[in-house]
Write a structure and sequence with these properties.
mainly alpha, 3 strands, globular
Length: 212
């Protein structure tokens, strides 16, 4: 099993995963499966910037884990047990979405740490970001930025504007609840704030390197 999972991690460095557990569950529960894996160059710099601004602003700099964010989340959750806050990086979300399943629990979290460590060592940042943008759920049964761009704006992911990318990135915390179409109040408010964060984050040289 160890050899098989290691081989699969290495294969996924170049080959897109055929299907994920989350996508399988989406089909079984009746939400369907809309997806279209695309290359890094076929993704608009706007959507790359938007998801980093929304989900992981330190993505180019960390080794898979944002320790400061984790400590802040722990303190917040201790004070607000009914409103838990996460601190998952894009790398952790790729580990969960590609190799594992949704939900919590110490066992799954332990596996997530392992897979996050492995993809950070065996992949590069562009591959991690590309995979995230291809497998993340961006609406009920909608997986990946190409499917989202077609469903919401009737265009390809490479043509997404800054505001359109911000709207897609804004739904990521809960894409079934925070809808892009129809436009939910949460996505409308958050995307406006996110555009300002994108403008600031774009000045970082490490971020700019990932937008190429």
């Amino acid at each position: 099993m160890f050899v098989l999972q290691l081989v699969y991690i290495i294969i996924c460095r170049w080959v897109n995963p055929p299907i994920t557990i989350t996508q399988t569950v989406s089909v079984i529960t009746g939400h369907g499966l809309k997806r279209d894996n695309i290359s890094y160059d076929e993704m608009s710099p706007n959507i790359k910037l938007a998801v980093m601004a929304a989900e992981d602003q330190l993505f180019p700099d960390h080794d898979g884990f944002d320790i400061k964010a984790i400590k802040k989340a722990i303190k917040y959750n201790e004070k607000h047990p009914a409103r838990r806050r996460g601190a998952s990086t894009i790398s952790q979300q790729v580990a969960k979405n590609v190799f594992l399943w949704q939900g919590g629990g110490f066992f799954r979290k332990g596996l997530e740490v392992y897979f996050t460590f492995m993809i950070e060592k065996l992949w590069n940042k562009k591959r991690i970001l590309q995979t995230y943008l291809n497998v993340a759920e961006m609406g009920p049964g909608i997986f990946g930025v190409q499917a989202a761009a077609r469903a919401y704006f009737n265009k390809d992911a490479k043509d997404l504007s800054r505001s359109e990318a911000a709207m897609i990135a804004s739904c990521l915390p809960n894409p079934k609840k925070f809808t892009v179409k129809p436009l939910s109040r949460y996505v409308s408010r958050r995307s406006a704030l996110l555009i300002r964060q994108m403008n600031n984050l774009e000045q970082d040289p490490d971020i700019r390197e990932l937008l190429k």
